[in-house]
Amino acid sequence: MAKPNGAHQSALQHTLIYKVEVCLPLGRCMKKAFLPCCLSSSSCNSGSMDKTVVLITGCSEGGIGHALARAFAARDCQVVATSRSLSSMADLKNDPRFFLQELDVLSDGSVVQSVANAIERFGRIDVLVNNAGVLCVGPIAEVPLSSMQRTFETNVFGAMRLIQAVVPHMASGRKGTVANVGSITVQAPGPWSGVYTATKAALHSLTDSLRLELKPLGIDVINIVPGGTKSNIANSAIASYSRMPEWKLYGPYEAGIRARATLSQGMKPAPTEAFAKEAVARILKKNPPAWFSYGRYSTIFSILHYMPLFFKDFMWRRIMKL
Ligand SMILES: NC(=O)c1ccc[n+]([C@@H]2O[C@H](COP(=O)([O-])OP(=O)(O)OC[C@H]3O[C@@H](n4cnc5c(N)ncnc54)[C@H](OP(=O)(O)O)[C@@H]3O)[C@@H](O)[C@H]2O)c1
């Protein structure tokens, strides 16, 4: 069983993981016989069977998507690695395990084209990982609506665009796995990242409904929920924060608000490769768990999820000096 983030695993953490990985899938034990052995836990390629084809969004070098691409390839999968720019995946270019595609989750045309290219090349997509995402930092009362919309467009509708493009292909083969990358912030929403957290809360909710709706089509759905994990997310967040207007009501809090952009990277984030290896192991399981969380503070947030609101408010006020 995986150990989230090193040596600090408590008995409680064991219990949580047991609940998440063992109890949740128990109700799903009537797995259909036609489920491919290429999605077994030992390896994604078995004998003469074709490789499992995995499409991942947001695979820029240094991020979680890139590490996921490498971890799937290490498990003998064929990876359709996508990002907004091929240059951000240049290191994967000459490796036949990767089929590189430029894909912007905001664009219908881009998504349709990349999915068509993957289907034409490999005949199917077995696993879809909706990883692409952006952070949005700022006080909800003042973040421009255009920034809010772009965050929802990327984190929520971008994932839905991929799902609607890929699921019909999976359904025709009556097999497949969809993995959506959420966030632990949903379990205890704090200040200054409310828009981002709302997008991930929407994604978590959609993921839970999708899991039920896609079950009859033979498709599994898993929510991959990172805690703090090393990536480029803070750099991107700082870049978009620098385009925010000057806050009118929150001048005294500016430093704290800006610091939220780098929070996940500031406090010993989990190594990207470790996150990816553990996530891929869950996604490729014959009966994937409904939920997999890993990374810095993932255990603490799992506990906070069950705490009363007054406690969470108290905690955030103390931490953020509100
Ligand atoms: N790192 C953490 O601590 C953490 C914690 C919780 C959740 N997450 C989630 O993990 C996922 C991966 O993030 P990360 O931490 O690896 O951050 P990252 O290094 O910034 O990677 C984000 C990826 O999404 C891509 N992307 C952004 N907008 C896109 C668009 N319109 N179309 C296609 N791709 C787009 C980025 O492309 P560009 O390189 O072109 O910008 C990049 O490849 C995100 O969903 C994030 O919310 C991360």
From TrEMBL:
Q: Which Pfam families match?
A: adh_short
Per its UniProt record, what PROSITE patterns does this chain match? ADH_SHORT
Name the SMART domains on file.
PKS_KR (SM00822)
Q: Which UniProt keywords apply?
A: Oxidoreductase
| Signal peptide start and end residues | none
Superkingdom assignment: Eukaryota
Q: Name one GO molecular function term.
A: oxidoreductase activity
Segments forming domain Ketoreductase:
52-227
Q: Which InterPro entries match?
A: KR_dom, NAD(P)-bd_dom_sf, Sc_DH/Rdtase_CS, SDR_fam
A Gene Ontology term for the protein's cellular component:
endoplasmic reticulum
Which family does the similarity line name?
Belongs to the short-chain dehydrogenases/reductases (SDR) family.
| Entry-linked PANTHER family | NADPH-DEPENDENT 1-ACYLDIHYDROXYACETONE PHOSPHATE REDUCTASE (PTHR44169:SF6)
Protein name as catalogued: Ketoreductase domain-containing protein
Organism annotation: Trapa natans (Water chestnut)
- What lineage does UniProt assign to this protein's organism? Eukaryota, Viridiplantae, Streptophyta, Embryophyta, Tracheophyta
